[in-house]
Amino acid sequence: AYGFIDKGDPVERVAREVESAMERRQLLAEVGMLRTYAADDSALVGDSPAMRKLKESIARIAPIPSTVLIIGESGSGKELVARDVHRLSGREREPFIALNCAAIPEQLVESELFGHERGAFTGAHATRKGAFETAGKGTLFLDEIGELPLQAQAKLLRALEEGHVVRVGASRPVPFAARIVAATNRDLDHEVAERRFREDLLFRLDVHTLRVPPLRERRS
């Protein structure tokens, strides 16, 4: 309880009390956010209004275990944002696995994501865990998610829906507990309209959105 209002008090005092309570709540939230970043473990630098807003959003979203979609231009620091989400999520002692979807040859995407069994394809000399399993109870960061081929998008969607993955060449599902954070510099709504990205996958990924302001908006 913040204050006490008597039934005989004028409505102007009620309005002042409500305003004061809201200001106090906002101040406490800002102090909490600043304390979160007080150790300065974050690589996100600058104190511009855009950066303060971004840090507040990260601090609010990080403890929620849902998927996060980070949107921003190339070079704006999307992976740094993902690492802060991981650091503030309560999973900071667990692995942080980053996978650049644009840098993986198309024929190896499923193996990198889900792993493979020995002999599943030419060159698969040993069983290998994919990124989902390697991340354990930590965070799996899928950078440039818009570059995933459609076939891999379908399998990623199924993994997110069912909470398990199936290694290439295997039939037994393997459950995963990692939190999924994805990032893109593309307009995924446009990609959906052009049929280059699955709408149902975008719905699964876009539970929480973090928009990283471009450097020109945070020159400090």
Give a verbal description of the structure:
With 220 residues, this protein is α/β, with parallel strands linked by helices. Helix content is 39%, strand content 15%. It is built from eight helices and nine strands. A five-stranded parallel β-sheet has the order 2-5-8-1-9. A two-stranded antiparallel sheet has the order 3-4. A hairpin with an 8-residue loop joins strand 6 (164-165) and strand 7 (174-175). The chain is elongated and about 80 Å long. The model has no long low-confidence stretch (mean pLDDT 87).
What would a concise description of this structure say?
Helix content is 39%, strand content 15%. It is α/β, with parallel strands linked by helices and 220 residues long.
